[in-house]
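so the lab meeting is tmrw and i was supposed to have these ready like two days ago... anyway. pasting both below. for each one the top line is the aa sequence and the line under it is the structure tokens. i havent really looked at them closely yet so no promises
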Amino acid sequence: GDPPAPDAPMPPMSLDGGNEEEYQEYWDYNDVNPRQLSGGWVEYRSHPQVKIEPYWFHLKTAELTFEKPPEAHSVVGRLEAPGHDQEELGGEGPE
């Protein structure tokens, strides 16, 4: 999809830079438990420093919207978050 127009309204900014509850919600939706919805959409949260807001991303078209698409009405599965299939870091550290 095309990026938003430069004059498109943006969500309001956070007044406090985010709190613990907002960060927990952000990590849950974006890293720990991404929700794949019907219609090919995934529901995410914007960063708490901006202002935690839900947004939806379409996996095939790369469309992004802050208004819930009508076809994204139910959770159909979990999306594997990027990086979760990588080998865990280890070692002894610097010598």
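ok protien two:
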Amino acid sequence: FFFPPPTKKELDTMTPEEEKAVADKRKLVDLFRSELMAKVDEHNEELHNMEEEMAHLAVFKKELLQKAEDHLDDVHRMEEEQKQLAVFKEELMKKVDEHLNDLHKK
């Protein structure tokens, strides 16, 4: 917001009341400008804080996704182990049955 100072010609033709009015307007403009700049600074700080928070959230998201992938890997590994144990149990039960049948034959 720009409020230009009066020219020398304008100053020469102004009454003291007009000079005071111009000075009062200039003070208001300066006050408005400083309040506006304070708000701009405040918003810039908020923006900076949000950018930092977004960076932290991005890291958190990456870590969370990695943990989810690790967990899925663990689940798949356990499922595979469970299948292998089922096969082992089945083979063991067959051997036990065979052994029992051999004992009955004797």
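from a quick look at the 2nd one: The radius of gyration is 42 Å. The chain has a mean pLDDT of 93. will dig more after coffe
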